[in-house]
Structures are given as structure tokens and as C-alpha cells.
Amino acid sequence: MNTIREAVLEARRKGVAVGHFNASNSEAVTAIFRAAQNLRVPVVVGFSEGERDFFGIPQAVAVVRSIREKYDFPIYVNADHTYSLERVKEAVDAGFDSVIYDGTELSFEDNVKAARDAVAYARSKDRDIVIECELGFIGKSSKVLDELPDGVKISAEHLTKPEDAARFVKETGADMLAPAVGNVHGMLRGGKDPALDIERVAAIAQAAPVPLVLHGASGNSAEDIAAAIKAGVGIVHINTELRVAFRKALLLSLQENPDEVAPYKYLKDPVKAMQKVVEEKLKIFNNIQ
Ligand SMILES: [Zn+2]
To answer: How many angstroms does the Cα of residue 48 sit away from the middle of ligand 1?
Structure first.
């Protein structure tokens, strides 16, 4: 069984990317697993701070790990956007395969300092834990947006600079890097986000010798995502599109079955709706027709 690090490096060698999908509940974990199992590709289940507080931190790790062991399947659990060193340590200690330290609201120097501490903590453990860091602000919430999030600017001068990425990775020892390349968290109403700057992705990949992670890919076109993967992206994050699919299908399911009170019945269609989104995305990420 590959570790998450090996799975991502193997994806890079093949010119494809590993899909990362967020979960708030076990229905999402089921949908993500079924989709990946159908397509026989590795997958990462991500839990943000809010999502893992809702699910339970040890429970999130235990559920994903139990699937991995029972089915001998490459499914990994990631502590998505973690904003403090305390919570990085909590996630490392809880057994997450990878942890994202997000210091994008700090100055470059403070982000470097905290990221370096996060990496050092992971390295002090006797198992392999991937630490991903973030450089460049792309907004914070996975929701449907009427306009770009506050503080997010996607003109060329505000995107992550290749020389900054190189310095950041060198000084922190981060295993993976999430840059700002025109991507935003959440997606614009209507589902069409601004185009990604593929040349910038390629330039950052050239400068920084680690797999890049594309966050906020909900709302980006399949062509843009495929081009970004070719240019150096090893993991692609999707959250909002799953949330939208779940909510829509849940509303419909409740409307169509007003007297049904068994969650395992009225939640079937919402699970299927999420699974469909995950499969569509995994096909793009893994170049499956
Ligand atoms: Zn993200």
C-alpha cells in the first residue's frame, strides 16, 4: 500500500493528479470511497477544522483508515486548512496522513516561521506525515459566491510568484505547496470561475521542487484543471460542488418522500449525487475517458 506521499508522486510521474474531496459526514465519505473504488484510483478525504470538529477528529481518522484496511484501498485522510500550530499538532497526533498548515493570512516571514514549526513537528514522529503549506490568499470558505471573496485578487501581480514559492519551500521544508494561481475557494454562482493561470502553475512547478496542490477547483473548467495537472499539480481539491450536489439531492429526496423518516432511505439519493460529482472529477484528474 502506497503512502499518500507515494501516491501523489506516482500520480505526478503518470501526469495525473489525486483527487481531494471534503467530507462533513459519513455519507460524504461513503460517496467518495465508492467513486474512487469504481474507478480504481487513489483518493483523499479532507476535513477542514469545522468539518472535523463536526465529524469528530479521531472518528474522521478511524473511518477512513478502516476503509483503507478493510478494502486494502488507497484512501487517505487529510486535515484540510489548519490555521494554528496547536491544531496542526492535534491533527498529527490524531493520525491524519497529511496536514495542511495555512498561514496565508500572515506575512511571508511569519508564514515561513509557522510552516517550518509545523514541518518540524511532523518530522519528530516515527511515521511519514505529509505537510502541505499555502502561499497566496484565495479566500476561506467553500460556498456559492456572488463575487470574489474579500481580499482575493486574481490579477497577475497578486498571484504566487515562482521565486517566493522556491524560497518558501526551501526555508520551510514543506512537502507540498498550494499556490494562488487564479483559483478561489468556493465557486461563483452559475458555476464558472475565472480562468487559471496555467503559465504561472508551470513556472511555480519549475521553481519549487514539490507537488503543487490546486485548491478551490469547484467551478473551474475541466480543460483548465487538466492543463494545471499537466503543468505540475499533484492534488486537486473539490468541496463546494459536492456540498451543492448533496443539498440539492437532499431537498428533492425530502420533498418526494414527505413521510419517510429513515435516514438510510432518504439519504440514498444524496449519496449517489455526491458520488456522481466525485466520479466526474476523478475522471478529469486521472485522464479517464
Ligand atoms: Zn482549500
So the answer is: 9
